[in-house]
Amino acid sequence: MGKCIGVVGAGVMGRGVAQRMMEHDYSVFLVDIREDILKDAIKSIQRNLLIHNMFKAKSNVQEMMARLTTSTDCGVLVSVDYVIENVSEDVEVKRKVYQELESVCIDECVYMVNTSCIPITYIASFTKRADRVVGVHFMNPVPMIHFSEVIRSEFTSEETIEKINVFLQNVGISIEVVNDSPGFVSNRLSHLFMNEAAFLVYEGVATPVQIDTIFKQAYGHKMGPLQTADLIGIDTVLDSLKVLYDQYEDSKFRACPLLKKMVYAGKLGQKSGVGFYEY
User: Fold this and answer.
1) For 76, which of 71, 128, 132, 205 could close a Cys bridge (C-beta 3.0–4.6 Å)?
2) Omega before residue 141 within 30° of 0, cis
3) SS3 for 5?
């Protein structure tokens, strides 16, 4: 078998990671606990490959799709050298996943933790291979963004950092390596301005369009904070703020009530068709 990798979690990030790896000649085992999510992931990845193919050198989508295997059983990961974990931003859910991975994966396998805010050192403590656990914060949409923030835990070895650097370079991703801290650099900053933007809407100060327009025009960003929140998913933003609040015990991470209300109403952003904007 050629290059092969395991991707755990078939949500928005997991699908993007799987697609990127398939586009760079990796065979992918995509694992999720729900068969319906996996079936939807297959359709979504195939559709995105066809669209992506329109804007780049032509590739054979059928050949790429043939490199994708889906399963509800982590046992398919028995021989892979790398696993990229993308499950929900919930410590107990992640703990259960790593306990299962530990019973399956070979000792040499490296775990890449694709989390928004949970400390990598904490997740590494769920395993017996803490030196081979590293945070890789892929950016959404993964096939389009050629950069990742890499997080070194208290235990991550230099050998693991070097292996991950080479691996990510091979799939066209450059990196910056930072030390472990809840939210790391990108989300510790970005979730503050997304939350504060939500407060501005909640207080009636400005509309989402006004806020995003001001942010883009003033700072030259491609997307405003509320467009970014819709892209990430309002539920994921809220979960991440809860993690940051718990980890730092600092009120500056107190989630805006509007975000909670939107999640209760199923207004999760692009993935549900409605968030701060309609899609």
Assistant:
1) 71
2) yes
3) strand
